[in-house]
Amino acid sequence: QLIAKYFEEHQKDFTDFLIAFDSYYTTNSPENKELSDFIYNKLKEKGFIYKKKIPVIYCSHCKRFLPDRYVRGTCPACGAKDQYGDVCEACGKTHKTTDLKNPKCSLCGNAPEERTSEHLFFKLSAFADDLQRFLAAAEIQDEVKNFVLNWIKDLKDWCISRDGPYFGFEIPGEKNKFYYVWLDAPVGYIASTANYCKIHPGNGNADDYWKSPTGKVIHVIGKDIMYFHLLFWPAMLMVAEFNLPSRIQVHGFLTV
After folding, report:
1. Which of 31, 209, 216, 252 is least enclosed by beta carbons within 10 angstroms?
2. What is the DSSP secondary structure assignment for residue 228, as one 8-state letter?
3. If we measure between CA atoms, which residue out of 166, 53, 33 comes closest to residue 120?
4. What residues form DSSP beta bridges with 179?
5. What SS3 state is found at 209?
6. Distance between alpha carbon 204 and the CA centroid of its chain, in Å?
7. How far is Cα 35 from Cα 31, in angstroms, rounded to an integer?
8. Start-end of H helices in the chain
9. Could you give the CA distance from residue 128 to residue 132 in angstroms, rounded to a whole number?
10. Mean pLDDT for each consecutive 10-residue tract of the chain (256 residues)?
11. Report field, pTM of the whole predicted structure over 0.85
């Protein structure tokens, strides 16, 4: 219901600005489930997935683990208040929910507690050299490139799972574990391409764009999601053998 509401609102805003899409799709689709599982299984097959017990945030009042967007607090890096549990929208740095200062449950407002849970990790730290080569080859604004190169100096492995209840797809072979939203969200680009090919016959298939030597991928993204699109996403594409974006255009915000 929430998706349907915003889908309609966003489409109206886009139309008012004379913007049209060839495929304005959803990440909550059968195509995206299939592709997310395919990429996850590739990461696993090639030895880039491992399990580790970590501290997580739990709300004893709501009786549930709190994923990133269900916790708000002070950014541990810049001190900005009322930030989410995975990324600071003020300074752009990512963090763990347990790093937040003065955390509060977004649902009830109470202070949560730390508990331990086993989670799945992607060995992102193994891709430092590959990501540097990608950044050197891709068309990206210099200031963005320099920003991301600083992140690569301290590249850490990436937790790709969340405890249920969580919106999205359950991870195959795991009990009550779901993909972290930034694993399956960008996969939605490939899924949306597949949807485009389905509703516009004669335009080939998703592989023609994402795997063919003649396929070219360009991303236009907001400045708050650079971390995910310039580190996590290219590394996943490398392992799954999809085309990397040749250009990433980062922009500021337009408030409607």
Report:
1. 252
2. I
3. 53
4. 161
5. helix
6. 27
7. 6
8. 2-16, 30-45, 128-137, 142-152, 181-199, 206-210, 226-227, 233-240
9. 6
10. 91 94 92 98 98 95 92 96 92 89 95 96 97 96 93 93 92 96 96 95 95 95 92 97 97 85
11. yes
Strands 71-74 and 101-105: antiparallel
Classify the C-alpha dihedral 163-157-69-193 as positive or negative: negative
86 vs 98: CA distance, rounded Å? 10
Name which of 173, 156, 160 is nearest 49 in CA terms.
Answer: 160
Give per-residue burial for 203-229: e unless 16+ CB within 10 Å, then b: eeebeebbeeeebebebebeeebbbbb
CA–CA gap between residue 216 and residue 245 (Å, rounded)? 7
Torsion of CA 73, 69, 90, 188, to 10 degrees: 170
Exposure string over 117-130, b if 16+ CB within 10 A, otherwise e: bebbbbbbeebeee
- Residue 9: what pLDDT? 95
Query: From CA 147, how far away is CA 23, in angstroms rounded?
Result: 31
Neighbours of 131 (CB within 10 A): 21
Q: What is the DSSP string of 28-81?
A: SSHHHHHHHHHHHHHHHHTT-EEEEEEEEEEETTTTEE--GGGEEEE-TTT--S
Query: What percent helix, strand, coil does the chain show, rounded to 5?
Result: 40, 20, 35
189: closest CA among 3, 23, 5, 18?
A: 23
